[in-house]
From TrEMBL:
Keywords: Oxidoreductase
Name of the molecule in the record: Uncharacterized protein
Gene3D superfamilies found in the cross-reference section: NAD(P)-binding Rossmann-like Domain
Record PANTHER family: PHOSPHATIDYLINOSITOL-GLYCAN BIOSYNTHESIS CLASS F PROTEIN, PHOSPHATIDYLINOSITOL-GLYCAN BIOSYNTHESIS CLASS F PROTEIN-RELATED
Listed GO MF terms: oxidoreductase activity
Record bears the keyword Oxidoreductase: yes
Source organism of this protein record: Cercophora newfieldiana
A Pfam entry, by short name: adh_short
SUPFAM superfamilies: NAD(P)-binding Rossmann-fold domains
The keyword ATP-binding appears for this protein: no
Length: 348
């Protein structure tokens, strides 16, 4: 689902390393998901649909496919392929939620009640928009979908995470990240006064909107790291693995907007790889053992958090992101207050 390329120069990678990343071919680390349940948001997307197929081909028991668009086509394609090969077809549930609004996200809560277990939750849903638009909840649409609604979905999923009897590891929830956060990072300084989220939301068309995807992903990375830390420190949250995964760059319907811009197109052409490979990286991320908790998962290793997040200013920003997100969600979605209370930890 990455829409901004990896920007090798920004990441400090050599040409050889960039080509290695492009041609890297991770293989699935889990031989079988027998008896397990997996949830995928953005299941109609290039990565989400491929991840669903990977789970299905490895004996997953139940797939919950969620998107703003009907995922019946994905379901039918998986069923037809497995039947033609004489393989077992999993139970596949197709559900719709609209992440452009908080109310639309809340539809997920009733769908989660259909599940006895939830071993893997892969949150791939997201948008890339070069047009500055406002959501019905009053947020720039990229911030709404990629950050605020993704955070809300994660908080809804968290209490539902429960390993099935045959799964030896804690359940895993994985967010999709992008090294597009690097070129956006210079625009993400924390204001001395006023809301941090509102400052990033107060956007204008042009260059600022071009960085909005990376900004939304940086906000999500802050939120994910704080969520992982709070889950570790909480005495009431059962053991779970929370991480992020970077699928790398790929030409997908989401990234096709980059075709119209010279520099992004050239960089994408240099670094893009088959989305099938990125899907493998994401499924490995959401299948990580508990050692992957709080990590950023890549093809063959974990990655460091961006340097701007490790500085003192980054720690301040992370706390601001969490506190302001909590205030916004509790004001608009009072039902989520109980989950935030579970995550209250002294000293954080």
């Amino acid at each position: 689902m990455t829409s901004v390329p990896d920007w090798p120069a920004v990441r400090g990678l050599s040409v050889a390393q960039s080509l290695e990343a492009k041609h890297g071919r991770p293989t699935l680390n889990t031989a079988s998901y027998k008896g397990r349940t997996a949830l995928i948001t953005g299941a109609n997307g290039a990565y989400g649909s491929r991840a669903a197929k990977l789970f299905a081909r490895r004996e997953v028991d139940t797939l919950l496919l969620v998107d703003v668009r009907d995922c019946t086509g994905v379901k039918e394609a998986i069923e037809a392929e497995l039947k033609s090969e004489g393989r077992k077809v999993p139970r596949i549930l197709v559900r719709k939620i609209d992440m452009m609004t908080f109310a639309g996200c809340m539809e997920l809560a009733k769908h989660l009640r259909e599940l006895d277990y939830l071993d893997h939750a892969l949150l791939t849903a997201g948008i890339l928009s070069f047009d500055c638009k406002e959501s019905p909840d009053g947020w720039e649409t990229t911030i709404q979908v990629n950050f605020l609604s993704s955070a809300l979905v994660a908080l809804l999923v968290l209490p539902a995470l429960k390993s099935s009897p045959g799964n030896p590891n804690p359940p895993v929830m994985t967010f999709v990240t992008s090294f597009g956060v690097y070129p956006a990072s210079p625009t993400m300084s924390v204001p001395k006064h006023g809301s941090y989220l509102k400052r990033l939301n107060n956007n204008k068309p042009g260059m600022a909107q071009g960085h909005q995807y990376g900004r939304s992903k940086a906000l999500l990375l802050y939120f994910t790291r704080e969520l992982a830390a709070r889950c570790s420190a909480s005495s009431v949250v059962p053991k779970v693995t929370i991480n992020s995964a970077d699928p790398g760059s790929a030409w997908t319907p989401l990234t096709s907007a980059n075709q119209g811009m010279l520099i992004p197109r050239l960089i994408m052409n240099f670094s893009a790889r088959d989305p099938d490979i990125g899907a493998v990286a994401l499924v490995n991320g959401v299948s990580a053992p508990e050692e992957g908790h709080g990590q950023i998962m890549q093809d063959f290793e974990t990655a460091e958090y961006p340097p701007f997040m490790e500085r003192k200013s980054g720690q301040v920003a992370q706390k601001r992101v969490w506190d302001e997100t909590r205030a916004e969600l509790e004001a608009k979605v009072p039902e989520i207050e109980g989950v935030f209370k579970m995550l209250e930890v002294e000293g954080r």
